Amino acid sequence: MYRLTPALRHYDWGSPTAIPELIGREADGRAVAEAWFGAHPQGSSLVEHRDFPTLTLAQVVATDPAGLLGRDVVERFGPELPFLLKLVAPVSPLSLQVHPSLEQAALGWVREERAGVAAGADNRTYRDTNHKPEMLYALETFEALSGFRTPRRAVEILTGLKAPLIEKTIERLRYGHSAQAVRSAFEYVLLGARDRDADVAAVVAQIEERLASRTSPSLHADEIALRIAREHPGDRGVLASLLLNPVTLRPGEAMFVPAGAVHAYVSGVGVEVMASSDNVVRAGITRKHVDARALLDIVDVRPAPPIRLAPEHARTGVEVFYAPVEDFELAVITVADADEPVAIDGGGPRILLAIEGELELCHGDRVEPLVRGAAVFLSDGEDPVVRGHGRLVRAGVP
């Protein structure tokens, strides 16, 4: 059992206060977009333990992978923690992005290695060889875009916006099979007719007008497009957002984003669990490295609604969100009676993160207080109980 200090990510889209408040740190004015609880080499948590006063979780796991992760996990995933748990707190839209599959990540990583792109370079896309499916659990109302609309609905959203870039996009949506039409339209919005970049500002002005007159076919979609336009004026991702499904997660709801699914987080606070990877292929609405052509090579263009996950009620106080991948699952554990401890079950490595209340983690003679924002790594075979009043999330391997 090791207490964890997260690795913080100060991306400019993050809230300066939300994550510091969650983990009990004083805000210093910088944006804090993410807090990483895990062992990814690009941002491993530090452990708080008398035997390992200055080591990262990745270094600790390397001392005894089979003992800490379990032989089954090592046989399936190798000697590294297969998942990464995060807190995320966007106050402005993230990049329009896609995560690769295992095969795509391996090929992309080799390609950039052979090209001599440094591992930490700003223009590096593939930072490891792993895929990155992910699940988001909302702690506060969370706004996002995820997956493509049907061509018919996309045409409804675009109709009435007068600009050659939009008119040509509508033409592409109206012809061909569904996925083919979406691919053609999406590619044109991102890369076609480079002399029409000025159309973005013209369309944004029209979106403002139809919102003001309440004639918009989707108030939600138009509001998100305007938020993106304020942060990234002239970016074609503003128009691309109209092709995507807007989604609102209420506190306690969860969404799964598979490899290949185009998405962008817009605002909110949530817990994110994913395969341990930092591979992100971006096509717009960002100041980071953009490679729209690479994104188009791996994106899944089949129209589909966002994948909302319903929890399975495993037992009293325990709800488990299962994703259709082998790398991770997420349980939400509620402790309502101080006299009735709740077992932290599940095999293999697990990370616990307290999200509400005051709790105690008890294992043998050891008692660890878990206030809001505190996190603990459990190794294979450790089965503590939690007491008190509050909630925590448990990330683990199915």
UniProtKB/TrEMBL annotation:
It is an enzyme of class 5 (isomerase). Zn(2+) binds at residues 97, 99, 134, 263. Binds 1 zinc ion per subunit. PROSITE patterns: PMI_I_1. One of its GO terms (molecular function) is zinc ion binding. Keywords: Isomerase, Metal-binding, Zinc. One of its GO terms (biological process) is GDP-mannose biosynthetic process. GO terms for cellular component: cytosol. Its EC number is 5.3.1.8. InterPro entries: Man6P_Isoase-1, Mannose-6-P_Isomerase, Pmannose_isomerase-type1_CS, PMI_typeI_cat, RmlC-like_jellyroll, RmlC_Cupin_sf. Pfam families: PMI_typeI_cat. It catalyses: D-mannose 6-phosphate = D-fructose 6-phosphate. Its cofactor is Zn(2+). Transmembrane segments: none annotated. Residues 1-149 form the Phosphomannose isomerase type I catalytic domain. The active site is at residue 282. Belongs to the mannose-6-phosphate isomerase type 1 family. This is mannose-6-phosphate isomerase. It comes from Litorihabitans aurantiacus.
